[in-house]
Every structure is written in C-alpha cells, then in structure tokens.
Design a protein that fits this description.
Layout: E1 13-17, H1 22-33, E2 37-42, H2 45-57, E3 62-66, H3 72-81, E4 87-90, H4 105-133, E5 137-142, H5 155-175, E6 180-187, H6 196-199, H7 202-211, H8 220-230, E7 242-245
Parallel strand pairs: 1-2, 1-4, 2-3, 4-5, 5-6, 6-7
Helix pairs in contact: 1-8, 3-4, 4-5
C-alpha cells in the first residue's frame, strides 16, 4: 500500500494571520501550493485579494479574511467567521527601534498588543476549537532572532518575540495530548518592508559579510518552506521547538583569520 505524502496539505485548512506581505505572504503562498485551503488574513484586504486572485489563477484554494490583530473586536469577528482550522500561522507583528530608555508607554502598549496579546488571544480561540474538534492541528509562531539572542534597540519587540518562543514550548507541552503541535520559527535577517531602510545602509551589508556564515540577507521565501513543513504530517513528532532560519548567525560566526598555506 502506497504511503501518503507526508508533506502534502491536501484536505487541510490553514489560517495565516498577517498574510498581506513579506513572510506572511510567502508562507500563505507556500501553504496553498502544498494543497491547503488557505485563508489569508490581515487589515489590508485589497492586498490580500490580489494575492488570493493570483493563487486561484494557479488552481489553488485561497480566501480572504479581514483581521486587525491588535483589535479584540476584529479578532472576535474573524474567529466567528472561520471554518474548522487545521493550521494556524501567526505572523502579524510590528516594530519600533529605539533606545530602551526612550520607549513611550503608548509604543509599549501598541507593540505588546499587536505582537503578543493579539496572537495569544487568536491562538487561544482557534486552539480551543481544535481541541473540541478532536482532529489535532498545527500552530506555527513567527518569532525572531530576538527570541533567542539579544540585539540592541529592539527591547519591546524582544519582549514579545521571546514570549512567543516561550508560549510555543508551553503549548507544545500542554496541547501534545490533543495531537496539536506548536512550534516557533526564528527568522534571521530577512529583508522586509519593516527593515528595508536599515538594510539599505552599506555598513550593515558589510557587517553581515563579516559575521554571518551565509553572508546574504534572507528573503521571505527562505522562511516559507519550514513553515509549510511544520504544518504538514511530516512534522507530527516535532513540537515545542524554536527553529532559527538565519544563515547560521545564531550558532556560528566567521572571522578574517586564514590559516597559513
């Protein structure tokens, strides 16, 4: 008897929160192309519609859902409109870069509400339905290098992304008995709209060449394949993990020394 493809998402329904651009868009496209009915969610419905139209033109199933992750009312409306979800991908987030002592209470509240509280409550609502349904499921959090490393000038962002890593470990332990796997991807230096101005500086590019084993900037398409795998039956025995996709920078560094020939 032929074994089912462990990487196929055929028959699965996926929700991607934060799918209108960047990493979220790349993941949504990857899920749809792997066979999932994919629901693309964000505030920017016009951008979602464009992506969904292109995916449907390729023969995939793609739908659009308005979701402002920072709004409890919007989250509740979105959850009430959802079908049964097999796969939840939490990508939505924002950032403010400044010295720790300069963050305002308003900036702190906005970052925590968007990057953590909204994702916590969405995961709680979707996960509760997964448990009640009894068919298992997959949850993938998109963390950051700051989930595992300290970097300057992103302290509030680091609070939120470290929390997502911890929540992934905790839910991996708590929801394993329900057949639900929860993992966190920690992207490295990925070029997106949120950081393109920073990476336009030549000194940043030269710095990367000096420290990162793979000396190029990453792209959203470098993250999507792992998210698709963690959404597939092939990852059923993987849970509670924080996995870096970062060109090796969190585990290895390079230096200018060369041995004598």
């Amino acid at each position: 008897m032929a074994q089912a493809n462990p990487f196929s998402l055929s028959g699965k329904t996926a929700l991607v929160a934060g799918a209108s651009r960047g990493i979220g868009q790349a993941i949504a496209e990857g899920l749809a192309r792997a066979g999932a009915r994919t629901i693309l969610a964000s505030r920017t419905v016009s951008a979602l519609e464009k992506i969904a139209v292109e995916l449907r033109a390729e023969g995939h199933v793609a739908e659009v859902l308005e979701l402002d992750i920072a709004s409890r009312a919007s989250r509740q409306r979105a959850v009430s409109a959802l079908p049964d979800i097999d796969i939840l991908i939490n990508v939505a987030g924002t950032n403010v870069r400044k010295r720790f002592e300069d963050y305002t209470p308003e900036e702190y509240d906005r970052l925590v509400n968007t990057n953590l509280t909204g994702i916590f409550e969405l995961t709680q609502a979707v996960g509760k339905r997964m448990i009640e349904r009894g068919a298992g499921g997959k949850v993938v959090m998109i963390g950051s290098l700051t989930s595992i490393l300290g970097l300057p000038y992103v302290s509030v962002y680091t609070v939120t992304k470290s929390a997502l890593a911890g929540l992934s470990r905790q839910l991996g332990a708590e929801w394993g008995r329900h057949g639900i796997q929860v993992n966190c991807i920690a992207p490295g230096f990925i070029l997106t709209d949120l950081n393109k101005d920073m990476w336009a500086k030549q000194e940043m590019k030269e710095w990367m060449k000096g420290v990162q084993p793979n000396p190029r900037l990453g792209a959203p398409q470098d993250i999507a394949p792992l998210a698709v795998f963690l959404s597939s039956p092939g990852s059923d025995y993987i849970t509670g993990q924080v996995i870096a996709v970062d060109g090796g920078v969190s585990t290895s560094i390079v230096w200018p020394f060369e041995p004598a020939s």
